[in-house]
Write a structure and sequence with these properties.
Number of helices: 3
Strand order of the largest sheet: 3-2-1-4
Mean pLDDT: 79
Distance between the termini: 62 Å
Shape: elongated
Oligomer: single chain
Amino acid sequence: MKLANLIGVGLLSLAALSAAPGAARAESVKTYQVTGPVLELTDTAITVQKGKEKWQLARDKDTKGAADLKVGDKVTIEYTMTAKTVESKGGAAAKPDKAAAKTK
């Protein structure tokens, strides 16, 4: 009887894990870094010079370490890319099956 209960609990656990694949994928979002001197600071953005380019990254109250920054500080900022909007242009056209085209 105990073995049957253990198997049942194991199957329920597997079902719960497979029902939440989005949670597993959310953890695998790639992070990037940019390093350079701070050119400008606002409540909502940090601008950093990277080579000849100026990088402006959004920040909010949850951005760690941003409270102590000053213009001129050399920083390394870790960030992720986040989609703000997505506009669908429709699906790709289906390619004709070569084998089906030959039989006609």
